[in-house]
Amino acid sequence: MLTTPGCRPVPVVLTVLLLASCHRDAGPDTPTLPIDSVGVRIVESDPSSSDATCTIGEEPRVVIGDDETDERQWFSSIPGAGRLSDGSIVAVDRATGEVRIYDETGGHLRSMGGMGEGPGEFDDPNELWVTAGDTLWVGDATLPWRYNVFASEGDFVRQVNLNPFFRNSSLHGGVLDNGYSVNSKSKYVLREGFDTTDTLLVQIHDRDGNLVGTLARMPDKIRGVVKEVPDLWLSPLFQSFARVDAVGSTIALADGRDTEVRVLDEEFNLRTIIRWFEPDREVTGADVRAWREVYIESRNRPASGPWSRFDDARVSTNRPVSEIFPAISSMRVGRDGRIWVRQYDRPREDRRWLSFSAGGEFVCHLAQPPGAVWEFGSDYVLLTAQTELGTQTVRLYRMHLPTD
Question: Which of 134, 124, 135, 133 is nearest to 92 (CA)?
Fold first, then answer.
């Protein structure tokens, strides 16, 4: 038996913890999926005591979208990007609804999709997942939420509508290699006093979009109003949010408050619970003052527009403040099964990504890459970044592990 940091068999009481955290009382019309926790491992680590570091190259290996004279290279907004098995890159342009594929050098190969109501067309393309065989699932944020499925060669395969339908877009989740999709929506009751916690309802749908069952009900954000602006709903300062991601055969769940990620496989077996130690998470008065200073500085920039009553609400001393910083800002399941956790950025302090192996062991720290991360591979990071003119580009960086 390994000692901490390491792995240990799960005690019997873990089943009770899972039932409590997943709320099996999901309702008579929503069957709750049984989660098999037999053989699960708890893996604990202390990243703060490790200097293991992952790095990315100083310059990107591929840049797509920097030639504004070529409409096939121009993006207004990129709601999703991924990499195919042959090294080519796929990206979605929100304005045109096109799903575009580029070769390893960034040259345009083909496009599919488009705006409209026909087969394979979009009302509002939103996110993209590359599944087994380079099959592309692209979310459409029309009402209700649905997917368009394409072959990487460019052929439209089918449309998948959720049943029962989602009134709004899925908030977090993904599509597994087996074609099952993980979709989530918020269940909330609005009360003015910041005394009710929203619930993130995580559901599984089969290849045809039919509801399989509820995987988890996770505590999410708290909301309320301050007296300065009673019609603006706010969360407490430094509020945590639940996180869900699904890639390949892996589903990752985290409530954002605790330094813990639960990792399940495509058959909903709980494989691993990753826990880590992060010191000094208490919020101080100096943290609150620093946040307000940073916010005011950002609103004083010329492009920010005039100060409004909504800004008054955000910096109000009547706005509640969380006692501890969130443990997680964002989370990604890598294409190789590794789990990537972005630590919460504190005022005037950029935190790092933490990488954990598929088995839960801590791998490395990674400084935030220069853009929004869409995908982690075994040796690359795929992200989007803005040009000086405000347009978006897709960039692929080579990533080096501590063992390289």
Answer: 124
> What is the 3-state secondary structure of 154-169?
CCEEEEEECECCCCCC
Among 140, 70, 60, 69, residue whose Cα is nearest residue 105: 60
Query: What confidence category does residue 168 fall into, taking pLDDT thresholds of 50, 70 and 90?
Result: confident
pLDDT recorded at residue 195: 87
Contact predicate 30/351, CB 8 Å = no
Q: Is the pLDDT of residue 298 over 80?
A: yes
Q: Do residues 140 and 93 lie in contact, with contact meaning Cβ atoms separated by under 8 Å? A: no
Amino acid (one-letter) located at 338: R
Contacts 24+ apart (CB under 8 A), 310-314: 310/229, 310/232, 312/228, 312/229, 313/225, 313/226, 313/228, 313/229, 313/232, 313/234, 314/234
Torsion angles phi and psi, residue 96, rounded to 5: -95, -15
**Tokens 């790092």, located at residue:** 352
Predicted confidence at residue 328, as pLDDT, reads: 96
How many Cβ atoms are within 10 Å of 127's Cβ, its own excluded?
22
pTM of the model: 0.90
Helix (H, G, I), strand (E, B) or coil at 183: strand
How much is the mean pLDDT over the chain? 90
Using an 8 Å Cβ cutoff, are 262 and 243 in contact?
A: no
Summarised one tens digit per residue, pLDDT across range 101-146 is: 999 999 999 999 999 999 999 999 999 999 999 999 999 998 899 9
168 near 183, Cβ under 8 Å? Answer: no
> What is the three-class DSSP state of 87?
coil
- State the Cα angle at 290 between 284 and 294, rounded to 5°: 150
Model confidence at 210: pLDDT above 50: yes
Sign of the torsion angle spanned by Cα atoms 201, 207, 209, 210: negative
